[in-house]
Amino acid sequence: MSSKTPQFDKAIEEILQGLKPHQKTCPQCGSVFDIYQEDIEFYKKMKVPPPTLCPQCRLQRRLGHRLNVLPIFYKKTCSAPGHSEKIISFYSEKNPRKVYDNKYYVSDKWDALEFGRDYDFSKLFFEQFHQLALVVPHQALQHDLQSVNCDYVVGGISSRDCYYVGVPYRSENIYYSSLPIRCKDCLDINDTDNSEQCYENVSSDRCYNCNFCYESRNCLDSYFLYDCRNCQHCFGCTNLRNKKYYFFNQPLGKEDYQRKLKEINLGSRKVLKKYQAKFAKLFQRAIRRGVNNVKSVDCLGDLLKNCRDCFYCFQVFGGAENSRYLFHADKVTDMMDIFGTAKSSLCYESTGISPCSRIKFSRNLKGGGMDLEYCAECSSNCQYCFGCFGLKNKRYCIFNKQYSENEYWQLLDKIKTQMLKRGEYGEFFPLSISRFPYQDSTASIEFSLTKEQILKNNWHWQDEQESELDLSKFQVLKPEQVPDDIKDVKDDILDKVILCEQTGKPFRIMPFELKFYRQKNLPLPTIHPLQRIRNRFAFRRHWRLWQVPCAKCGKITPTSFDPQDNFKIFCEPCYLKEVV
């Protein structure tokens, strides 16, 4: 079969033909990284040159183009024809990008081809793409069309009745949370799967009525757990298996345990903080499994479920095969350098793609995209497009301009050949043209930077936006003025504003929230919901690996816990002997 891009294929073959495993120095962070033989085989399969940046800097770049795990919202004027109302968006009014309200955006009243333009060979590709992205309207919030009553939600799939949540996946009645997967009736949870009636849980799975639980699974009616499995009615415990009625890792009889709990009023903020501090000491001393993978074979990474032949992959909750440098995925095969994907295959250096196939250097694609390169926010089965933005169900387009099939391949051959020669082809969109401020993006979680560092890199920075809440219309409470005990909270708290004890930002208590706290006998928070989400990320495992000596046998073992945290890390054999 003859090549449709002969000039490019010849040029890329010259680069890849004699390529052998070697080390490179990352021009961004200065670290030395490996190009492995398995990497090279994938580059040849996808016809891409080897990357210039190390794996961590490549991940940072992709994360910097995403705002999903942090539910951050602004009010922005709708740019749809005949509209001028303020709408909820993750773009601020100062952001130059145009936005359409979600209903108008998904309608047939406009076509992104209207903004098509010719490719200019005298200009750099990324410069031209950035200009295109500034004129093509963006969706105010990237809602999943199958989700219901999720107005204050960023991303997600098939969820219902969620509020102030980042990426709810098939979840219902979730509030002030990030990355809940198949959860129901929970508040303030991060990275939690298949759980119900839970509060302040992180990285837990299949729990019911559990609160302040971390990396625990199949637990019931418990408080303050770390790395517990199949435990019920436990309080302040770590590394337990199949236990009932334990209090700070000590067994009690059922009646003694119940009597002990009645004596503890967690509805008081002072009492709650006392037990949080006590548990923190136990949490620090707990045994930690270097990596926590389930039913995974020939894999290097962490938080992997049902994976095979995966290298340096993290948080794959639905299975993956033959993938490298993959992060947060579900049911995928043959992927490399990807963050955020489901039911996709043969994709490279992209983020937010589902379900798709044969995708390169693209972001936020959905609805069956195929053979797309350097595209963004395209949907509804787009195929064979290059450098396009916001298209729906289109083929053979370049810079939102449609061509015949022959014209498309001829022009594409010239563009890719020139980009490869210039060193542009093979690189993801630079952070300098990200649509989001770096401090709002997902990159700020894994790669926290100061304002000075962001500006020095010439990346997208945005000054803090003042709250539009008119405080003169409310009674404002300082943290110390909020009632200590939930039993002392009256319904009029719903008409008041609380100032966050950490950030000073104002926030309000919502009706569903007050009901939840009363049912669980928990005190009102004095920290802003967004800051609470950020705080919980301190409990997550990182998306990188360190090699550390096992605290039991001294054998070097991989872990996603930062060695500076001084946790007690066990290798797999020692962990299984000690804990299981």
3D architecture notes:
Helix content is 22%, strand content 27%. Among the domains are: 327-429, no CATH class; 473-526, no CATH class; 546-578, no CATH class. It starts with 5 loop residues before the first helix and ends with a helix. It is an alpha/beta fold. A hairpin with an 8-residue loop joins strand 3 (74-77) and strand 4. The protein is globular and about 80 Å long. 43% of the residues are buried. The strands form nine sheets. Strands 17, 18, 19, 20, 21, 22, 23, 24, 25, 26 and 27 form an eleven-stranded mixed beta sheet that branches.
Task: Describe the SSE topology.
Layout: H1 6-16, E1 22-25, E2 32-35, H2 37-46, H3 55-63, E3 74-77, E4 86-89, E5 99-100, H4 102-105, H5 125-135, E6 138-139, E7 153-154, E8 163-166, E9 172-178, E10 184-187, E11 208-214, E12 220-226, E13 232-238, E14 244-247, E15 250-251, H6 254-263, H7 269-285, E16 287-289, E17 297-304, E18 307-316, E19 320-330, E20 332-342, E21 345-354, E22 357-360, E23 363-366, E24 370-373, E25 383-386, E26 395-398, E27 401-402, H8 405-422, H9 443-446, H10 451-456, E28 475-477, E29 496-499, E30 506-507, H11 511-520, H12 529-536, E31 546-549, E32 556-559, E33 568-570, H13 572-578
Helix pairs in contact: 1-8
